[in-house]
Amino acid sequence: MKKILLVFLLIFSIKGWPQQKENDKISFSEALALHLPSYKQKAEKAYRLRNFEEAKVLFDSLVNYKLAGSFMDDFGFKNLKGKEVYLSKFKKPVYLLTYASWHVPGKGELPALNKLAEKYSKEIDFVVVFWDEKKTVKDLSKKFNQHISVLYVDETENEGAFVVQQLKHSLGLPTCFLLNEEKQIMKIKRSVFHPYGISEKESFDMNYEAIEEGIANHLLMQERSGMDLALMPE
């Protein structure tokens, strides 16, 4: 009788494993709720003491060990026609960049992003989200090429408050999220900060290298390894 009970327990526990794994998934918003308060307290102290290196270490630790691996919530944004667009609409890995009209990008940042979006458009969805009104975003969208989806959240409309709180006010901006096909966060990065006064060519090269490194190491590597496995003979 004991042996029979053990067999049944084993069968049910094995059946329960996939469900357990599914339940273990944690969303980005949940991960933020768990770890952001402690990070903010320590980071504010570091900035107050002008210990910028410590602040950077704290940010890297938060994103690498607490937020990476969580799954991005299915946030909704608006496209330039005012239509709601959810993150789940994008089926490929996503290079998600949150921006603001008052942020002045480096000289070579947008040209580098445009060039890479054109290069990897078949493998990756490039998405830029602005925190601004439709008219302003429509004007700004002209700076991005056709391979980049430009979306926005207008805070003055009192909509998307939860999205704003999570993506704008939690980690600051501009912030880049690298998401795989399941919208799992593979990496969170900030824009390249380079010395003032460098040439546009130098700025372009630095941004191009940094963006492509993130794409190659955190988006394409996983996608291509999955393709290789699919092509293996059974």
From TrEMBL:
Which Gene Ontology terms cover its molecular function? antioxidant activity; isomerase activity; oxidoreductase activity
Q: Which Gene3D superfamilies match?
A: Glutaredoxin (3.40.30.10)
Q: What is the lineage of its organism?
A: Bacteria, Pseudomonadati, Bacteroidota, Flavobacteriia, Flavobacteriales
Query: What SUPFAM superfamilies does UniProt report for this protein, alphabetically?
Result: Thioredoxin-like
Question: Keywords of this protein's UniProt record, alphabetized?
Answer: Isomerase
Residue ranges of the Thioredoxin domain?
66-216
- Does the UniProt entry include the keyword Chaperone? no
Task: Tell me the protein's name.
Answer: Thiol-disulfide isomerase or thioredoxin
Q: What organism is recorded for this protein?
A: Salegentibacter flavus
- The protein's superkingdom reads Bacteria
